[in-house]
Amino acid sequence: MAIVSLREALNQAIDEEMARDERVYLMGEEVANYQGAYKVSQGLLQKWGPKRILDTPIAEAGFAGIGIGSAMLGLRPIVEFMTWNFSLVAYDQIVNNAAKMLSMSGGNFSVPVVFRGPGGAAHGLGATHSQALESVYSHFPGLKVVMPSTCKDAKGLLKSAIRDDNPIVFIESEVMYGDKGEIPDGEYTIPIGVGEVKKEGTDVTIVSWSKTLAHVVLKAVDVLQEELNISIEVIDPRTIRPMDYDLIVSSVKKTNRLVIVEEGWPFAGVGAQISHEVASRAFDELDAPVERVTQEDVPLPYAHGLEIRSLPNLDKIRAAVRKVLYLD
Amino acid sequence: MATLIKMPKLSDTMEEGVILKWLRKEGEKIKQGDVLVEIQSDKADMELEAYDTGVVRKIFVPEGGKAPIGGLIAVIGGPDEDISAVLSGAPAVSAPKATDHSRQTAQAFTPSFQTTATAQSSGGRTKASPLARRLASEFKIDLSGVSGTGPQGRVVKRDLEGLLSDKRASVPTVPRPSVPGTFEEVELSLIRKTIAKRMIESKATAPHFYVTFEINMDPALTFRDQFNNGKETKLSFTDIVIKATSEALMKHPHVNATYLGDKMRQYHSIHIGVAVAMEEGLVTPIVRYCEKKSLEQINAELRDLVERARTRKLKPDEYLGATFTISNLGMFGVDEFAAIVNPPEGAILAVGGIVEKPVVKNGQIVIGHTMKITLSSDHRIIDGVVAARFMQDLKMILENPASLVL
Questions:
Q1: How much helix, strand and coil, in percent to the nearest 5, is found in chain A?
Q2: In what helix (H) or strand (E) does residue A322 lie, and over which residues does it extend?
Q3: Is the domain of B196 the same as that of B135?
Q4: Which domain holds residue B192?
Q5: pLDDT digits (tens, 9 = 90+) for B54-98
Q6: What is the Cα–Cα distance from B171 to B165, expressed in whole angstroms?
Q7: Would an 8 Å CB–CB cutoff place A275 in contact with chain B?
Q8: ipTM
């Protein structure tokens, strides 16, 4: 087991897959000469040369479209968005071409492209550069949405994403690139669509993913277990679509209570979909209505004090956990 | 100010209590320290004394009636005091949240009725969580009789837990086939329900295994005769087995232990519970600190405990909190049997009868006396070899009983 940063884990995944399959290439803004805006592609230009590590102009719709076209013709592109906020410029390419091509071509053209980059809020980036877009992209049939919360998962899931024949939306987090964690030695992958129980518990299940899980929920769980003398089960679905409902439902059958914590907005959020599925599959197991913790329903404020109050935090998670346990 | 008398928690496993006898009637005066009522818990009969001087203004639960822990059973107040606020809240007697306090003042008590409204309070429909509904249907519980502690009186899982544990213990999970002929159904006593619950808990959570040894009892027979010769107190074999077990447990702390999930607790003292049969079930009075007591002390204590167990006069600390249990069915002609571990203890010793039979001694068949003992162990903390070594030592002590008086 080696300890690496999350950016190194992603770098290893890209590097190993480029060695494994010569059709794999990386393109995006500043990925080559500058070594990546967040240094995920450090050293790759030197190793693989300018034919496989390509700098693009600031033109997301253009290079997303080039990626999709090259994937249809047999290459396996990794398209980096400097942040997922900029993907909105390429939204039409992703949802109309990448997501629908296999279906609309009668199965003739698959689109094995990986779109990746950081999503969600960092610190003080303002409303347009802080968006958690997983609920938007997971809305579309034809796209898979992957969101790792650890270094091990980041590497294993990115390798699976590159090998997948479908378009993948792979959402990382700016504030997680420096997170350190153990990764297994040697070759491994983590399957898309399979969640993980991060921590077993008996009284309430919390589902969360990515940065919100790693930086907010796990810390809150330590505090609340002590403070409320309860045992919390934590589930990381790791993939937003396809969602590992079976894992969540089996946990709710044990704890009878569910809290979903996500960074996105409440309306039509990922948690709303999970909540429906659990109500449908495990209605008779619920002892309390499912609770959700989300970002406040406003464009994210720039001011620090308002930003931390708008995002999911310990106080909001405490209130939700107390509510499903009828502790108030 | 009126004092509310609530059903006290008389044992760790008690969920409700039965009113046996009111020693004061409504309107009668009572002094602080006087016995107000006799209550039957799942283990024993207890007397509840008044904490205040005053008049018994109201009795809510008649003799023979039941109330859950924390349920209001009576009010003591001044002779002319207005207790209408308390009386208006009385119907919730079966419901209020259990508390560790057996009394509260009226002022503190009244608002709690507002927050624990009964489930059917709005519009006649019983509000219950989906899980509570499923459990109620599975265990045939009428939800309209249950008070909910959730929002707007919603019945939630915790409101059913007491009822469920009783039902789980008593209701078979497979449909009962109909049997021709007539029958009668006997209401289970609290003791019976507690036994049912705890034995299921033990078998369901503690993986049992059993180790049986045959003991040569000739030395013990001789020892007992010599020991009792000319004395008033007559040692029983149970006394000898208790003392011998205590000595063996001192050498094997693994067997004198409790499983705690991620650790086990090994006790430094030996508290041996002895199963005593009563009409309604059994109770296990405890001989405490056996390692520090002589055979005579154990004999005297056990005699007193058994006598009071049979008349239900034991106090909770006299039957709760053993570290090991011994069950002796030898006097009923049982050769050998295997007992169920009494949780949270780690092991139990089942003692059979002493039988006269041919045994081989120095290559010759002679008449001897033997007794079979079986240790049931919780495999989560006790392994086969540990159990076997404990039993080897116990056998050695029982076959050399003189060491017990050294």
A1: 40, 15, 40
A2: helix A314-324
A3: yes
A4: 118-173+183-205
A5: 888 888 888 888 888 888 898 888 888 877 776 665 544 433 333
A6: 10
A7: no
A8: 0.74
Catalytic residue among A16, A30, A129, A277: A129
Check whether residue B93 and residue B142 sit in a common domain: no
Neighbours of A290 (CB within 10 A): 22
| CB atoms B156 and A285 under 8 Å | no
A276, two tokens: 């429906």
In a domain, B178, yes or no: no
**Which residues of chain A does B149 touch, with a Cβ-Cβ cutoff of 8 Å?**
326
B interface test, pick of A326, A327, A328 with most B CB neighbours within 10 Å: A326
pTM to 2 decimals? 0.55
A239-241 and A144-146 strand pairing = antiparallel
**Contact of B163 with B139, CB cutoff 8 Å:** yes
The residue of chain B with its CA nearest to that of A257 is: B131
Considering the domain architecture, whether residues B61 and B160 belong to the same structural domain is answered as: no
A117-to-A53, A82, A145, A166 alpha-carbon distances in Å = 16, 6, 12, 17
CATH 2.130.10.10 fits A2-183, yes or no: no
Rounded to the nearest angstrom, the minimum Cα separation between B379 and chain A is 24
Among the listed residues A17, A29, A60, A291, the single catalytic one is A60
Amino acid at position A37, single letter: A
State yes or no: is A172 an active-site residue.
no
Portion 282-301 of A in contact with B at CB < 8 A: 283-288
Cβ–Cβ below 8 Å for B156 and A286: no
Mutation target for A interface from B115, B129, B139, B143: give the one with most A CBs within 10 A.
B129
| Residue B255 sits in the same domain as residue B356 | yes
pLDDT tens per residue, range B14-56: 888 889 889 888 888 888 888 899 888 877 788 888 878 888 8
Q: What is the CATH number of domain A196-324?
A: 3.40.50.920
